[in-house]
Amino acid sequence: MNDSDYAKVIGFFQDSIRFNEMSYKRTFSKSEYHQLFAWDSVFHPKYEILELEEKGDELHLLVSKECERINFLHEGPFFTNEVFKIEEDAIHQIDVVEYVDFKDSLWTAKRENLVSWIAEHHPELDGFIYDQTKEGAMKYKKAIDLFKNRKDSVSVKENNSNQ
C-alpha cells in the first residue's frame, strides 16, 4: 500500500471487501474500492505493521498510518488495532477494532478550523471534506496547503503587533 499500487493491493482481496471501522461499515466491489484507494493515494500514505499475530483465519495487526492529511489533523501518525479476516486465501473483511492513543479532540478541532476557514476564504473548495474521490482528495490537499499558508494566521498577527 505504501507504493499506492492498486493492482498489487486489490490482488489480496476477494471479489468484494468489507471495511468495519468501529460502527462505520462499508462493503466495496473491487472497482468501488479503486475510488477510495485513489482518494487515499493523493495524500501519500505510509503504513507500517508494528505487530502481527495469526489466529486461525484471522490476522491481528497493530498498524501505524501517516500521510499529509493525518500529519496535519493529528500532528503525527495514528495507530490502529485491526483484524483481517481471510477466506479462500484472500482478505474479505478488515475490522478496525481500536484507535490506539488517537487525539480525537485535536483532530476534531483542526478539521473544524480547516473547514470553517475554507468555507469563508475559499468557498470553491467547500465540501471537500465529504468528497472521497481523487478530485475531492486533491481539493482536500489544496485546502490544507491554503490553510497552512494563510495570511490571517496567528504568527502574522503577532508579528504585526510587535512592530
Word description of this protein:
- By secondary structure, the protein is of the alpha+beta class.
- The chain has one domain (6-151): Nuclear Transport Factor 2, Chain: A (Roll).
- The protein has six helices and six strands.
- Strands 2-1-6-5-4-3 form a six-stranded mixed beta sheet.
- A hairpin with a 2-residue loop joins strand 3 and strand 4.
- Helix 2 (30-41) runs parallel beside helix 5 (134-148).
- The longest helix is centred in the last third of the chain and has 18 residues, at 104-121.
- It is globular and about 55 Å long.
- The model is unreliable at 155-163 (pLDDT under 50).
Oligomer: single chain
Q: Which CATH class is shown?
A: Alpha Beta
Runs with pLDDT <50, length 5+? 155-163
- Share in helix: 25-40%
Fraction of residues in β-strands: 25-35%
How are the strands ordered across the major sheet?
2-1-6-5-4-3
Query: What integer value in Å does the Rg equal?
Result: 18 Å
Present the secondary structure layout.
Layout lengths: L5 H5 L2 E9 L2 E6 H12 L4 E10 L2 E9 L1 H7 L3 E10 L2 E11 L3 H18 L12 H15 L5 H8 L2
Helix pairs in contact: 2-5, 4-5
What labels describe this entry?
163 residues; alpha+beta; Nuclear Transport Factor 2, Chain: A; 6-stranded mixed beta sheet; 6 helices; globular; disordered C terminus
Short description:
The chain has 163 residues and is α+β, with helices and mostly antiparallel strands.
